[in-house]
Amino acid sequence: MSASWQVWYDDQCEVCQAGVAWLRALDRGRGRVAALPLSDALAAGGGPPGVAAEDLLRHLHARAPDGRLLVGAPAVAALARAFPATWLPGWLAGLPGVSAVARRAYGWLAANRYSLSRCRGGVCRSARQDIVRRTAGRRAFAVCRVAGWALVAPLGAVLFARRLGRQLGAWGRTRGRTATLLDGRLSIHFLGGGLSGMVSLLFGELFTMVRYGSLLVDPGGTRLRRSAARHLRGQPHAIACIVPTHAHEEHVGNLELAARLTGAPVRAHRRALPLLAAPGPVGFMRALVIGQPRAVRLPVSALPETLDLDGETVRVLETPGHCPEHVSFYVPAARLLIAGDAFMGTHFSSPNDDVDHRAWISALEAMLELDLEVMVEAHGHVHTLREDVLRALAGQGLACIASRAHPRDMLRRKLDFLRWVGEQVARGREEGLATAGIQATVFPWTQRWSYETAVQDLVAAAVSGRAFGRHKVVRSFRPAAPHEHLPAVYEMRW
After folding, report:
1. How many Å apart are CA 252 and CA 246, to the nearest integer?
2. Beta bridge mates, 286
3. Beta-carbon contacts of residue 217 (< 8 Å; ≥ 6 apart)
4. Average pLDDT for residues 471-477, to the nearest whole number?
5. Mean per-residue pLDDT for 348-368?
6. CB neighbour class for 251 (10 Å; exposed up to 12, middle 13-18, buried from 19)
7. Sheet containing 5-9, strands listed edge to edge, beginning at the edge strand earlier in sequence
8. pTM for the full predicted model
9. How far from each other are the two terminal CA atoms of the chain, in whole angstroms?
10. What is the C-alpha separation between 291 and 282, in angstroms, rounded?
11. Contact at 8 Å (CB) between 492 and 476?
12. Distance between CA atoms of 394 and 386, rounded to whole angstroms?
């Protein structure tokens, strides 16, 4: 179809949002369908000429390229026929008998959508489960939830399969390798071993050990011991200091090994010292895949604010959020940030109990003040627009780990996203919404990132015994203490 369709849909309706996600996926960015949320259209006084707001809220309206205005089930069927992949169901929905059933099913959903919907994409009181279930009944509430997930699940599964392919390629190209950058001053050693590759394949997290000059950062988990030892024995540079960015198992499990092989001292943030001396249990699956860290028995001193190594100053930045003891390392002369887990992609949607996004937002704001050109994550990705770095990665066959984006842009996108999520949680609490209703507003089906990561997040929750998952997003937002000034954006663990 050459001309554009216009579709006015209720963005408070979960099933409607899933349908719009399908339209955008079928359109493939060609601009043939303009999906217009009613919350925006009504606020701006828009909508089809001559159609009352009550009618727009009652039924889906779609204007065809030839100017016809279709309403309700016929609009849905016509939109389906506009795309080759869904033409057959759309044609069947127009047949006598079938069309009558389609109209009845559509009419039931349209009439009950406020009772059934969890208000995905906007905050409304119908998202309170007590009201929803009293109005529509448990069966109707369950029907809507299942319908929304059933509509969006195929999209999520396809995108998850594509992501698996990309992650498999990145894992295969980086396995056991070392990326050498900035004239040899920066090395990113990729670690692996045992079942740890499953994390890289399923979730895209590569395990790394980073060296800048004589500074060694995050020597890996105990299951990655052999890989770390091989890199350390082949290390051509003398190491003067070993530091973890934080006390999670994939970052601290090999501290004693690295100290023994290099003869260098270990330093850590003061909040990490008791965690290194007496690490807590990490859970069965994490211990199996990455390894349960052992108590560090050698002396560990607290990190100062700056490290003077090789004639260069390395600033130690407190960047809590991912966990309270998290630090990052900034090299002003190289405009380099070794971020650790202070940046883990823009949309990290499976938090655990350590994450505190109120603190993370503040950390991101501070990082945006840095003069940056290169940012290295703990899980293998490099964010930069510097041509020498990009050429070096391409020449080593490791272009897959480069995002080709300015670090400040990446940090700003993450900060904007977290602020938006914080606003959704704050508004939901002000409305008195239940946790499921607030969570629904944080993961709108109209956003590709929401359904693209849905299957991955379900897998993460399942394999971790629910230690990670979307179910922890809302509970990880805690309002400020009564004695504190209430911020515009509430904290969030993501």
Report:
1. 8
2. none
3. 209, 210, 211, 243, 244, 245, 329, 338, 340
4. 77
5. 87
6. buried
7. 33-37, 5-9, 61-63, 69-71
8. 0.82
9. 41
10. 8
11. yes
12. 12
